[in-house]
Amino acid sequence: MNTTQTIEKLETKIDQIKAQLQNQGPMRPGSISRQFNVCGKPGCRCKDPKHPRRHGPYYQLNYVYRGKKASRFIRKEVLKQVRRELANYKGFRRLTEHWIGLV
Length: 103
Ligand SMILES: [Zn+2]
Description:
Layout: H1 3-22, E1 31-37, E2 55-65, E3 68-74, H2 79-102
Antiparallel strand pairs: 1-2, 2-3
Helix pairs in contact: 1-2
The structure holds zinc ion (ZN).
């Protein structure tokens, strides 16, 4: 294979990546963790001496923003959407890494 063909192939691949990036939906970085909490109410079920049942699950999004770790709670109603955005971000990262690898 000569150099011109190789370059053309690479350009085609890069164009494909660009097209995929344009179809990228909303995205956000991070990962979701599940938590169960104990509250401050005396006599609450979460402090039952025999069978404590903690509150939750609560979903927390953990991410890094400008080099700092951050987190926020995610309401159950938007959990699915947030998971989709996280997956989109992973896809975005994969595509850009692939692109950089071709240059
Ligand atoms: Zn409680």
